[in-house]
């Protein structure tokens, strides 16, 4: 069973044992943000750097053909697939708990979004300048769904291009915030989430 | 990313866990619905139900329960339906984030922003 748990979470602690931070008794409102991007771009690294728990991994079963349709039965193994995703958690206040989900952004995984990530506050599209094409499909779908998002460029090395060049290459609308980050660093990942939250707040007040 | 125990184990075990049910009214739970135990396990109770009741003495989200039990979210939701129907747990549902495709109110988003800034 451990094969689906990523290396960093292979010994995920059960509640009550070492490493588990229980939620407050008053926690009552779960919120969701999705971090989407291509393979290896740093989604789980970002979750790990800001999560109050060690990132966990879980999976969902569904049929590719009939997602959202009643016959999505996991006993029909020939038509069922499993999708694994990593997530972390941030307690925001006495009531609000924010869950961060790292999700693959490629076309073949998008079927997972409608079912699992409906109701997300917004999304962070994590991009690697060397592989911008990995982000196109996710950007297209986010715009189509009307899900608010920002673009964060993860710089494991010094960037060669300006953010404006990246904006142009991605054909991003001017009102989509962009930010540089280093997903390995907590403060940097935090700044990305703050940028998204500021964008969402602006949208809600009509200031954007 | 597509990998998992189902491929190796076959569905039999999961079928057993849920007593043969392949689906329930899963829409009763979101992935981030918080579950709280309202009773202690009783003798003879199915082991997965026992584990859920024990781990939810403090609030715990559906997706965390799924991860700790190493069972898919959809299977966990079926187990949670059993417990909810018999009053052994309560569920704290998320406020709909975007009713009608809209964002939550500015007050909520302001709280989120300030809390993240204060991390």
TrEMBL record, chain B:
Coiled coil (UniProt feature): none
Chain segments annotated as transmembrane: none
Compositionally biased spans, kind Basic and acidic residues: 1-12
Pfam families: DUF742
Region called Disordered, residue ranges: 1-20
InterPro entries documented for this protein: DUF742 (IPR007995)
The protein's name in its UniProt record: DUF742 domain-containing protein
Organism whose genome encodes this protein: Streptomyces luomodiensis
């Amino acid at each position: 069973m451990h094969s689906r748990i990523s290396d960093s979470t292979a010994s995920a602690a059960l509640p009550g044992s070492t490493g588990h931070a229980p939620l407050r008794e008053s926690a009552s409102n779960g919120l969701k943000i999705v971090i989407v991007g291509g393979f290896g771009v740093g989604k789980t690294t970002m979750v790990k750097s800001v999560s109050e728990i060690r990132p966990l991994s879980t999976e969902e079963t569904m049929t590719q053909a009939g997602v959202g349709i009643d016959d999505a039965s996991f006993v029909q193994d020939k038509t069922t697939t499993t999708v694994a995703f990593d997530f972390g958690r941030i307690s925001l206040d006495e009531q609000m708990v924010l869950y961060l989900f790292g999700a693959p952004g490629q076309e073949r995984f998008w079927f997972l979004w409608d079912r699992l990530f409906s109701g997300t506050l917004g999304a962070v599209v994590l991009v690697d300048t060397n592989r911008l094409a990995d982000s196109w499909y996710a950007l297209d779908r986010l715009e189509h769904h009307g899900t608010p998002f920002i673009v964060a460029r993860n710089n494991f090395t010094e960037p060669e291009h300006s953010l404006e060049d990246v904006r142009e290459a991605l054909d991003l609308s001017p009102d989509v915030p962009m930010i540089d980050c280093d997903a390995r660093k907590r403060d940097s990942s935090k700044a990305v989430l703050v940028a998204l939250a500021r964008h969402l707040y602006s949208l809600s007040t009509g200031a954007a | 990313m597509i990998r998992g125990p189902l491929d190796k184990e076959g569905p039999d075990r999961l079928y057993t866990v849920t007593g043969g049910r392949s689906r329930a009214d899963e829409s009763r739970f979101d992935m981030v619905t918080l579950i709280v135990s309202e009773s202690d396990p009783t003798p003879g109770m199915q082991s997965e139900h026992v584990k859920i009741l024990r781990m939810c003495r403090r609030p715990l989200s559906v997706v965390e329960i799924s991860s700790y039990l190493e069972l898919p979210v959809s299977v966990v939701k079926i187990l949670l339906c059993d417990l909810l129907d018999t009053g052994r747990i309560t569920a704290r549902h998320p406020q709909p984030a975007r009713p009608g495709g809209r964002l939550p109110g500015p007050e909520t988003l302001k709280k989120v922003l300030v809390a993240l800034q204060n991390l």
